[in-house]
Amino acid sequence: MTHDKHLATSLDNGPEDAWVSVIQKMDEAYADLVRYQVEVEEKNLELEENKQFFDSIQSSMSDVLIVCDHSGYIQRVNRALEFLTGSVGESVIGTRFTDLVESRFLQKVDSFLNQIRIQPVRDCELELKGVDGPVPLSMNCSPRKNRRGRLVGMVLIGRPLGELQKAYIELNNTHAELKLAQERLVQSEKMASLGRLVAGVAHELNNPISFVYGNMHALQRYTARLSLYFDAINEGQSRESLKAMREALRLDKLIRDLNSLVDGTMEGADRVKEIVNDLRQFSSTQESEKKRFDLTHVIRTALHWIIKESKHPVEVRETVPDGLFAFGHSGQIHQVVVNLIQNAVDAMIDSHEKILTLNAEQVAGTIEFRVSDTGSGVSGENLSRLFDPFFTTKPVGQGTGLGLSISYGIVSEHGGKLEISNNPTGGAHALLVLPIEESPVV
Hints:
Blueprint: H1 2-13, H2 15-60, E1 64-69, E2 74-77, H3 79-85, H4 89-92, H5 106-109, H6 112-115, E3 121-130, E4 133-145, E5 151-160, H7 161-234, H8 239-249, H9 251-283, E6 291-294, H10 295-309, E7 315-319, E8 325-328, H11 330-347, E9 355-363, E10 366-372, H12 380-383, H13 403-413, E11 417-422, E12 428-435
Parallel strand pairs: 7-9
Antiparallel strand pairs: 1-2, 1-5, 3-4, 4-5, 6-8, 9-10, 10-12, 11-12
Helix pairs in contact: 1-2, 7-8, 7-9, 7-10, 9-11, 10-11, 11-13
């Protein structure tokens, strides 16, 4: 109405003004059309670029992509599906997703649409009908909704299990190799520690063996005397002759000594057996079952070996009560204790005063074992690196740098704690904390 009135007004004003007004309006309308056309072309170009972008992403995906409507009919697939199934995309569009699934998995996938209304489906293993046979996939299924939040379909993404299984196998192989390398390092460090103790152990074995050897020589002499006496009895010699022989051979004293000789020999043999068992327990590569063990015996055995082997006199101040029991592998903890004591003794080689202090006590549900020395201590920059593999403050050729690292791993695996610090009065201080009972499984 307004436009007609304006045109009528223009006509009243004269025909020339009317035509000018019409032309102006046509120019404005044409300009609007041109602007709209440019905007449409820009939108079309943007849509085309977005389509190419998403198509390129779908084409480069190694995982299978299937887009379905709310009834399970396929609306879109990517090249990964075409490659695995040998089907052209256009041939599967409009078909049901279940047509691609192996029959024994149909019951599982039929419930997808109902499940995704509650929560997405994660890592569901199934098989698609592949060009070279069944294709195992790990399938994830998520809901697809419109702007109003209504469910309009589902998006399925599947990763071929062959790749995952290959990755798992490689990961397991790598883990096995690392575990084997770790076991070899542990055993290597154990043998290195054992090598340092050989001299002390040899001396320790020499005492009971010498005792047994001496007793057996005495028993051999006693056996010869008894044989002479029994031969005389068998020959029927007179009572007076046998009595004289008995006194000459001192058989009464011999008989009284027999029990003590046998007891001493058994004691020496038991001591040898005990030392051998300690060595076998320390050097064994087999991981025995964890159980309660006598930590006091472990500490004193390790201390005895190291002090016997030490080339420098060391004053030992030990406060370790009898009957301290911890829970774990006694052989592994023996290795840790040997390492801590050996490090303390080594740290005092150049010290004027060599005092090794050992303390142990039960605190709540743990045993705390402390080792202190009067060495030069550990520098501040090295304290944080003591448990790093292959780090050592000893001269080249005198340390592997694995002892404390392996000990830290052993103690951690036992649910304990291992700390090293400097004493305020000088020297280093090591704290080993071990449980006395098995930790409950949570």
